[in-house]
Design brief:
By secondary structure, the protein is α/β, with parallel strands linked by helices. It is built from six helices and seven strands. The chain has a single domain, classed as Spore Coat Polysaccharide Biosynthesis Protein SpsA, Chain A, CATH 3.90.550. One of its GO terms (molecular function) is nucleotidyltransferase activity. This is NTP transferase domain-containing protein.
Length: 191
């Protein structure tokens, strides 16, 4: 009997927003050492075992694309101004025949690869049917994994600036505590 192939999981960095509260597109932000947040997100997804990474851009896409490592693909969400829902849909469309996607917003520059690994591992060998969300002290956060059989249902419920959170709650996503790895904090405002 042949061994089954590992599920193909694509990482998606959601980096299309204008960052109004932040004071500019977060896709252009860098950490204190000068490393672009978008590079940190790509590194975490690749280090966590994603088979490929897609960075979804919108605001300042031409500038932000210059910060994306060559190992990742860039997709520009045509309707990014309509909110996170359009960026998420563009990322899932670009993921093609992946078995699952792992979603992270660009404003989580401290995300460790270990959190991505933990979420991917929790999905098991049948990642196509999996729904997994990280939690921090019981509070939902990122990364999250959405198996491909759920993409149509998720897409049908996307609207405006809402992401996958409500869908994951309604669908009973498996919660995986990652608070021992990092805080799960995102940056709505400049640090």
């Amino acid at each position: 009997m042949a061994a089954s192939a590992s599920p193909r999981v694509t990482g998606i960095v959601l980096a299309a927003g204008a960052g109004r509260r932040f004071g500019g597109p977060k896709a252009l932000a860098s950490d204190a050492s000068g490393t672009p947040w978008v590079q940190r997100a790509v590194d975490a997804l690749q280090g966590g075992g994603c088979d490929g990474v897609i960075v979804v851009l919108g605001a300042a896409a031409a500038q932000a694309a210059l910060l994306v490592p060559p190992s990742a693909s860039v997709v520009v969400a045509a309707e990014w101004e309509a909110g996170l829902s359009r960026s998420l849909a563009a990322g899932m469309d670009a993921a093609g025949d992946a078995d699952a996607v792992i979603l992270v917003p660009v404003d989580t520059p401290a995300l460790p690869a270990a959190a991505v690994t933990r979420i991917r591992t929790a999905a098991g060998e049948d990642a196509r049917h999996a729904l997994v969300r990280s939690t921090y002290g019981g509070h939902p956060g990122h990364p999250v994994l959405v198996g491909s059989v759920h993409w149509g249902h998720l897409r049908a419920q996307l609207s405006g600036d809402a992401g996958a959170g409500a869908f994951l709650t309604r669908a009973g996503a498996t919660a995986v505590e990652c608070g021992d790895l990092w805080t799960g904090a995102d940056h709505d405002r400049r640090p």
